[in-house]
Amino acid sequence: MKLMNLITRRGLLASLLLACASLATQTAAHAAEIRVITSGAFTEAYKKLVPIYEAASGHKVISAFGASIGNAPDSIPSRFARGEKFDLVILSEGGLEALMKEGKLVPGSRVDLARSQIGVAVRKGTPHPDISTVEALKQTLLNAKSVAYSASASGTYLSTELFPKLGIAEPMQKTAKRIMSERVGAVVARGDAELGFQQVSELIYFKELDLVGTLPDAVQQTIFFSAGLVQGSTEKEAANQLVRFFISPAVAELVRSTGLDPASK
Questions:
Q1: Which residue of 2, 100, 102, 131 has the lowest C-beta tally within 10 Å?
Q2: Residue 108's CB: how many other CB atoms inside 10 A?
Q3: What is the pLDDT of residue 16?
């Protein structure tokens, strides 16, 4: 097993080096500064990939983070409304299409990076509730004393679609809380909520949590997280190069290790 893990790591490293070499041959003469804002679900993959890209390309990536939707001060829509300047935005497909309709993004520039599913987490050492079926999930939600869910795309799905579909919208108004400007995992980790619902890629990095699993297939919402070029960008070529790196086959396993499914085959 250790030998196989070593072989896998070496294979991944070799693939990344090949991807970096390819990038280096495409790099323009000047070093660009690419301003990027990304939503939470892609954050862990982003943080792993950006240093590799910077080392290979010679470009610098200036990063910002925020929720895909909502009116929190640090959400992506709020930051665009304030006139903050970016070259590239990465967020849920619904959030991206909304910005596209508002004319904030370059038409036709959407590129899907990864798929994400909604997971359920509890504080480490506490009992794991049954979410194996839709009925079991319903009972688990009704039995929970407190539930935390995201202020972004997954949370909107829970509050406006899943809870009503399960017939529990009214009781969930008393026990479920939408978490603003913070990861759901942090709320559950400190004991402020019994159950936490968010994208798997945002839950798995909290050592204080146990990931119970994902929602049953019948009520699961698979969300694409996508990149789009911002209107008025002065670094479109470098931003496009960064996107091509994010979807290159060489980095697919790294993306998958963060709880996402690469969108490109």
A1: 2
A2: 8
A3: 54
